[in-house]
């Protein structure tokens, strides 16, 4: 439960961050269900935290969700944040739209004439600019029904376009409620007035002035954060999908995709220990991403490439291809042969560790989110990938520039280039933050160890999960591939989520 009053001053800013992390993780220990974001700084936390951004372990009713508000956080310093329960008087002014089901929907032109104001059947209201409405006509003449691409160029629509007429029809047994608009013809595109129909359901899902709701297809996905305890579930086969099922049908493939989407890791058991069969499994997700290692590759400790993966030494937790502008999305391995001992595989949930860092050391979190780091791949004579401009690297913790949500961990100490990208004042703090980060990712509580074997294939989300291995002896032959992150999420939507409501999402 949110405390009745939480005050943050300059002396207890860390307390605010701990409260934030508790909210973000649903107040649970061990496995955390994350439907919200991890933020890169206290200021961003102020800007982004809202009742709508918090999803507790038990989904609240609309009234309980509205029973708390954050008194305006935007623009305030951390020393002025006060979290209080909403007063009964304030609650009485909040319109409970559930009481208005059955209202006759209407539309009217705004006083300025540049927007259409829509009243929905549940009592909600939103406005839409005329040019936006014309640009979003989904009729077959304006939007191709198969390719889902626009047919009318946006730049051709007059900025001052206004409807000739419009009306709203309510929901009936045969049709959805809809806004019907007649537009003047667009010069050079049409010769007669154009009729557009917008379902109120679609308009509500795409509302922006204000936002009424967002469809399920555009809600944050469930993510389960984990630490060392995941090893038990892996060994028990909880995150495994049978090879026969994966290869037989899309329905059989879906559980594997869901494991990767939720946990950042998923296994397939019973794979024949050959490169040919392994590659076929990889291509069940998507086409492979070519790099300087090839498309589908095998490796052993022969140093055939200038990379420590081609040795027998221990590898600490890291992400692959941090030197690319667009690092690989998924990484897959299958151990085909091992005649010796050692070589256990290490997996670390970077999002889980980031939430720990935000809780315990928000200054270090901010530092690793702010300072760009250059990286390189230069071990092979025919390969030289590196960041040329000294300040054009990427931070270890990458956030969405609009929402501030953590969306990628980009950590590889071995591939880091010279730190000439740091301002003098940042040098001590960067190394301090780096050590704080390493202490978390190398903690036994956060390291998930498991032993791969012939027949068991693993895929990790390289944007989230770091990997490593123990040192080994003997001959050890691995094969694997990379897959693009966008190709993976496309398959999740179309296979594991039944199309993710294609029309409402776009």
TrEMBL record:
Instruction: Kindly give the Pfam families that the UniProt entry links to this protein.
Output: GBBH-like_N, TauD
The Gamma-butyrobetaine hydroxylase-like N-terminal domain covers which part of the protein?
Answer: 109-184
Q: Which SUPFAM superfamilies match?
A: Clavaminate synthase-like
GO biological process: any one? carnitine biosynthetic process
Q: Please give an example of a GO cellular component term from this record.
A: mitochondrion
GO molecular function of the protein, one example?
iron ion binding
The TauD/TfdA-like domain covers 237-482
PANTHER family assigned: GAMMA-BUTYROBETAINE HYDROXYLASE-RELATED, TRIMETHYLLYSINE DIOXYGENASE, MITOCHONDRIAL
Return the similarity comment: Belongs to the gamma-BBH/TMLD family.
Name the chain's protein.
trimethyllysine dioxygenase
User: Origin organism of this chain?
Assistant: Gonapodya prolifera (strain JEL478) (Monoblepharis prolifera)
């Amino acid at each position: 439960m949110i405390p009745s009053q939480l005050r943050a001053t300059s002396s207890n800013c860390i307390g605010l961050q701990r409260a934030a992390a508790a909210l973000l993780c649903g107040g649970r220990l061990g496995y955390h269900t994350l439907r919200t974001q991890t933020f890169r700084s206290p200021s961003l936390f102020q800007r982004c935290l809202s009742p709508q951004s918090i999803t507790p372990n038990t989904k609240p009713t609309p009234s309980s969700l509205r029973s708390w508000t954050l008194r305006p956080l935007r623009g305030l310093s951390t020393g002025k944040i006060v979290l209080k329960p909403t007063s009964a008087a304030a609650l009485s002014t909040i319109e409970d739209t559930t009481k208005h089901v059955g209202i006759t929907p209407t539309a009217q032109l705004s006083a300025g004439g540049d927007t259409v104001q829509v009243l929905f059947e549940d009592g909600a209201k939103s406005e839409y600019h005329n040019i936006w409405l014309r640009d979003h006509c989904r009729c077959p003449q304006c939007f191709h029904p198969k390719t889902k691409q626009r047919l009318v160029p946006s730049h051709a629509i007059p900025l001052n376009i206004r409807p000739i007429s419009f009306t709203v029809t309510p929901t009936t047994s045969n049709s959805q409620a809809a806004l019907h608009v007649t537009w003047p013809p667009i010069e050079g595109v049409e010769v007669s007035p154009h009729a557009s129909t917008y379902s109120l359901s679609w308009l509500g899902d795409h509302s922006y002035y204000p936002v009424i709701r967002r469809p399920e297809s555009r809600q944050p996905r469930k993510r389960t954060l984990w630490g060392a305890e995941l090893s038990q579930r892996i060994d028990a086969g909880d995150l495994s999908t049978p090879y026969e099922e994966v290869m037989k049908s899309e329905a059989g493939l879906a559980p594997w995709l869901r494991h990767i989407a939720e946990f950042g890791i998923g296994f397939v058991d019973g794979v024949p220990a050959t490169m040919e069969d392994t590659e076929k499994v990889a291509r069940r997700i998507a086409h492979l991403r070519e790099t300087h290692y090839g498309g589908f590759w095998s490796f052993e400790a022969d140093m055939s490439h200038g990379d420590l993966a081609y040795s027998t030494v221990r590898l600490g937790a890291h992400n692959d291809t941090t030197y690319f502008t667009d690092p690989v999305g998924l990484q897959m391995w299958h151990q085909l042969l091992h005649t010796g001992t050692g070589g256990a595989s290490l997996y670390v949930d970077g999002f889980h560790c980031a939430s720990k860092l935000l809780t315990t050391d928000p200054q270090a979190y901010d530092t690793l989110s702010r300072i760009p780091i250059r990286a390189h791949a230069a071990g092979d004579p025919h390969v030289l990938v590196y960041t040329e401009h000294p300040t054009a690297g990427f931070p270890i913790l990458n956030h969405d520039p609009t929402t501030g949500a953590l969306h990628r961990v980009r950590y590889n100490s071995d591939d880091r280039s010279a730190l000439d990208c740091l301002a003098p004042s940042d040098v001590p703090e960067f190394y301090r933050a780096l050590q704080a980060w390493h202490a978390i990712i190398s903690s036994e509580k956060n390291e998930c160890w498991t032993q791969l074997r012939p027949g068991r294939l693993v895929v990790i989300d390289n944007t989230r999960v770091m990997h490593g291995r123990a040192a080994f002896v003997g001959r050890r032959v691995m094969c694997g591939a990379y897959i693009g992150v966008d190709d993976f999420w496309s398959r999740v939507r179309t296979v594991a989520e039944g199309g993710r409501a294609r029309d409402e999402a776009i």
